[in-house]
Amino acid sequence: xxxxxLAHDGTLRLNNAAITDVISCLSNKVVLEDGVxxxxxxxxxxxxxxxxxxxxxxxxxxxxxAACKDSGCTTEEFTHLELYRQLExxxxxxxxxxxxxxxxxxxxxxxxxxxxxxxxxxxLDMPFSLGQMRHVLFGDRxxxxxxxxxFSLFEVIEGxxxxxxxxxxxxxxxxxx
Length: 177
Prior knowledge:
There is one protein chain. The chain has helices at 38-47, 57-66, 153-164; strands spanning 3-6, 12-14, 17-18, 29-32, 80-90, 97-108, 111-113, 128-137, 145-147. By secondary structure, the chain is an alpha+beta fold. It contains 3 helices and 9 strands. The protein has a 5-stranded mixed sheet with strand order 7-6-5-8-9, covered by helices on one side.
């Protein structure tokens, strides 16, 4: 699989050449250059507006990001943001079910934390990384397994859009992921 590199400024490169048709690259593996932040993805959305059609929420998120300061949008609560994949097998006893979620969480020394109670203006300039796959069987967190994985551009964009769609949510609404 060819690697698509996202730069800090939101530009994409494939085989060291600038991308012009982003839709044809959605299935490519994404690699992040050093210094990529959540704001880098909003720069990507501006540079390649075709990706906004992937998720109706993205246009509103871009408007919210444009209203934020140009720099310094961080929180001391996290060291960085991480996109990771979670694979859960549930349903025992009963009909087994396999669910795969792509999530973005704030990372600090106590673990992974939901972002929905943090405003976009405190997250945009946080360093961003691609994490591992977390595998959980029947909710048994004592035997969870972490595996290396890859993410396509589509998965990264959809994961960010999914997570940011919960911004400003109620504390009583929890997905428990």
